Amino acid sequence: MALAAVLIALPIVTTAAFAQLRGHGGPVRALAISADGQSAISGSFDSTAIRWSLTRNAAEQVLRFHSDAVNAVALLGQGRTATAGADGRIAIWTFGKTEPDAVFEGHTAPIVALAVSPDGTTLASASWDHTVRLWPLAGGAPRVLGEHTQNVNGVAFTADGRALVSVSYDLSVRIWPLSGAQTPMVVPMPTPLNAVAAGADGEIAVGGADGKVYFLTAGGARAGEVAAGPRPVISIAISPDGALVAAAGIGGAVAVIDRKARTLTRTLVGPGLPVWSVAFLPDSRTLLTGGADNIIRRWNAATGEPVDPLLVETAGDPLAAYAGDHGAEVFRACVACHTLATDQANRAGPTLAGIFGRRIATAAGYNFSEALKRLDIVWTPETVSKLFEVGPQAYTPGTKMPEQRIGSEQDRAALVQFLERATRK
């Protein structure tokens, strides 16, 4: 059940008639938009990054280097970009070149977020190895910030460049001064945190596993919260003019929040699959989202409507046949990455068809990590339940599956019973 990227050829759609961008062969995990709004970079579970022209709605270059999912991207200016992935590496690219100019190595677990300092000299990376690293883009050893006790999921520089903000599963926000004192300010939070953004006025917004967006002052004081939805917030962005916050969730919707009023103004509803990434264009009205259906969509954040009406079309709910089944609803967070039937292919994760009685990392046609192949686990109702009780990182170390736990014994039992019915060959 490891969640790892599948290496496949990418069909690139260049038709300018539609506002969606199709090209990735897996969920779109990361987005970054240029300062002039003319281009974007996206990273995907398919192990590639794509450079897009937003004026032509066309792919300009596919970047192939990483051996696993590309979880984070950043535009560095002057025709350069950075990509980082589940392979723990950061690649620095110049547009048009087919190989990276430089590769930064040091993280020992997936990198899941990148941020560029306001002066463009430093790249920050957040990793599931519990560290943040600050990389001088001109070269030199990174500074390692290692006080988090769980996976670090998000990182952002403050607008004045004087501090770095990181968020983690360890229920904390840490504000790191970049000069003078080296000890971070630790802000305890009520929930694990998945994402962070910093506004031009110094305010910090963080996205929680409880579906809320929390606001902090530049000094770390709590300054309000807004419920974005019932599912975890996994990506967050503040509009360039500071008026709006977009919070994307695992449930497939994007909450648009009035930052000053601290109110939910509208919800963007797509196909219902997880939205992994969100970014504003410079006009502060147009929003790009990257989803589990492999498509980048363009939205009018002021009205909540897709720019093109075809954006909301979908092939249908893959769990429609199980309507009313509580176990199927628990499984819904997994459906973007795993199929259930023998006639359905592997996705970002292997198919679960015939999983019970099968040894871990043996599903046909899937490229599992060596760490998983060494584990002595056979999938049974008991082992699947244990996976979600203690979490993938503890039960299957070496997995690329996002950390997720199901605390309710009843929910775990419902999930297992559903899988027993739905995955029979």
UniProtKB/TrEMBL annotation:
WD repeat coordinates: 21-62, 104-135, 145-186, 268-309
Family matches, as SMART domains: WD40
Signal peptide feature range: 1-19
Occurrences of domain Cytochrome c (ranges): 322-423
GO molecular function list: electron transfer activity; heme binding; metal ion binding
InterPro entries: Cyt_c-like_dom (IPR009056), Cyt_c-like_dom_sf (IPR036909), Cyt_c_1A/1B (IPR002327), WD40/YVTN_repeat-like_dom_sf (IPR015943), WD40_PAC1 (IPR020472), WD40_repeat_dom_sf (IPR036322), WD40_rpt (IPR001680)
Alphabetized Pfam families for the sequence: Cytochrom_C, WD40
Database matches in Gene3D superfamilies: Cytochrome c-like domain, YVTN repeat-like/Quinoprotein amine dehydrogenase
Keywords associated with the record: Electron transport, Heme, Iron, Metal-binding, Repeat, Signal, Transport, WD repeat
Name used for this protein in its record: Cytochrome c domain-containing protein
Natural source organism: Bradyrhizobium valentinum
